[in-house]
Amino acid sequence: MDCSEPIAETPAAAYKLLFKAVIAIPTWHYFLAMLLLCMIFLYNLFEFHFLHDLFTGFWGSRVVLTYNSSSDLYRGVVSKCRTLHGRYLATPWLSSPHIQTSFLNFFGRPPRVCYKRQLFHASDGGTFALDWLRHFDVSGVFTHRNQDISKDDTTPIVVMIPGLTSDSASPYMKHLAFNTAKHGWNVVVSNHRGLGGVSVTTDCFYNAGWTGDVREVIKYLHQEYPEAPLFVVGTSIGANVLVKYLGEDGENVPVAGAAAVSSPWDLLIGSRFIRRRLLQRLYDRALTIGLQGYAQLHKPRYSRLANWEGIEKSRSIRDFDTHATCLVGNYETADSYYRHSSSCSFVPRVSVPLLCISALDDPVCTSEAIPFDECRYGCLSCVREKCCINFLLSFTISIFATNVTILLLLQSKQKYSPSYNTTWRTSSFL
């Protein structure tokens, strides 16, 4: 084009020049631009923090502790746990809470564990499975495989409560159970009613606020193995059940220490959060499908006790709770069920050492629900990245959380016995 030619100052001429300029740009430039825009969109959508880690020299985030400096538990246990006073750095290619959440489920390669099953019969006629993984089952010593735990055994027992629709076969539970047993502790996974391949034998189903089963299991274990310190670890909904149970019974719990991993804390806040954004709605839908699968396993009872047509048409957890949980559990509305079952209000009543591990960027259990003020009765630690074992986290991160839990409880074991009811609380959000 001859630049000496006069340019007509009309919109048509301007658009004509603009069109010529656009078609003159090589196609691969457009491809690169679209690729860059897509990368920016996905980076923000999946909440990656790789660039932040890169610009900070992969130094990680320091664990920020808020604690009661006069607590003997802090001085005796937490102050000596170097992991809680260190830094945390996510694996660079897993620097997204959403990638971490799904990684373990698809690529985690859980360890091979061979549980010993015990059917537990509750006082109301309900039946569920207790899956044992003893420390000698993973130690390589085969001489004790067929032996039962003696009543005077002093080896600590860790009771594990799985999350929503999870059981002892879930990958993250296998990781947690295996690594705990590997440290020399006996593990028993208390499966929820109707899960783990055990049929429901009464009209009572588990829910986020049902503490009856864990109460009976812990009472039974304390009576059966009175010399063994009892510890309890709950994940996700299991963590909510655990904290609620500890708060309900206060000082009347035969537990030496507990750990709540990725608890939803306030179910009403969580129910609103999980419908807020696109990815959260996908989690909501995936969890709902899991609940519908659970209901399908027990269709004869659900079709009689609940609204089966509503269950089949449910597109969210709230829908399922409205048509199933509320009707079976005699709750007026889903909101009343969430308020009644939330564990956040029970935190001040907990009277045993409690370690709570959550993540500020958890894509399912929002940090908005964490009861920070209540947890300041003890010790609170937070890091920005995802490092809990909630909902199928990566192998590296799950082992990190496991080691922290074991280390803190192992040190507290030396100071607190099952019969000692302390009023100190330790809450640590990693």
Automatic annotation (TrEMBL):
It comes from the Eukaryota. InterPro entries: AB_hydrolase_4_sf (IPR050960), AB_hydrolase_fold (IPR029058), ABHD4 (IPR012020), Hydrolase_4 (IPR022742). SUPFAM superfamilies: alpha/beta-Hydrolases (SSF53474). Signal peptide: none annotated. Gene3D superfamilies: alpha/beta hydrolase (3.40.50.1820). Keywords: Membrane, Transmembrane, Transmembrane helix. The chain crosses the membrane at residues 28-46, 389-410. GO terms for molecular function: monoacylglycerol lipase activity; short-chain carboxylesterase activity. The keyword RNA-binding does not apply. Residues 156-368 form the Serine aminopeptidase S33 domain. The keyword Aminoacyl-tRNA synthetase does not apply. Belongs to the AB hydrolase superfamily. AB hydrolase 4 family. This is Embryogenesis-associated EMB8. It comes from Olea europaea subsp. europaea.
